[in-house]
Hints:
Number of strands: 10
Structural class: alpha/beta
Bound molecules: zinc ion
Radius of gyration: 22 Å
CATH architecture of the largest domain: 3-Layer(aba) Sandwich
Number of domains: 2
Amino acid sequence: MGVTSRISLFLLATAAIVSGQQSATLTAQQIIERIQAQVGVPWRSQTVDTFKAGDPATRVTGVATTMMATYDVLVRAAAQGLNLIITHEPTFYSHLDQTAELEKENDAVWADKERFIKEHHLVVWRFHDHWHMRRPDGITTGVVRQLQWQKFQSATDPSLFVLPETTLASLAEQMKERLGIQVVRVVGNPQMKLTKVGLAPGASGPQRHRSMLQRNNLDVLAIGEVPEWETIEYVTDAVSEGKNKALILLGHIPSEQPGMEYCAEWLKTFVKEVPVEFVKTREPFWLAK
Ligand SMILES: [Zn+2]
């Protein structure tokens, strides 16, 4: 081996050590700071986008984006060596992820999850408000792309779509297939003709749902979820009154999930030191025969 190749080998080794050190010292906190700098909207002081579990100073070996940090998602992320979990929805069963009650009750389900997170040095951070505030909305972007509805989207209101005329049954089938959902529930006449569809993924609340449905020209609203005595009763009444309205319930997870798949793609453009993977949250429901 000549002197030159010895030197280049030495340089290669040094570069490997340096880059190894760099990725070894990239902490969860540093990745979140990059997200805050890249998301394109001012960071709010009041937000649910905070650390929910684990130490922000933890060295990140890989990042998982997911819809909901379920126990099943945590297990699959840890098995892939991904220790920073970026979740759109809560980890501990309520919007603010407050664990005081669970601790007081010494709840066994919560305790196992907490233990798994500690034992595997996982860090869980929620990315909800600002991913929605981004323009265009990060969740909507992923969902519309998955539905292949870009060409039908209104230029002035990204939650409205004018589709070629179809029936409610066909529309529900198309959404079920394209979003890969097992359980889709529908309120309305299956043969109802429609063109104007509103999309409200997640749980945007009965007021938002109603204001979308109140537009006379909107035929169908597709949502993630809502309590059955709110928007569901409202649309049931509209149908009974003979109005051309319908509701499609996609389920919270599948209604927003493509938005967190898109989030992984976006993260990869500025987090290059460690792997970034989308870890799919499993739909919780199955259909009884
Ligand atoms: Zn959401």
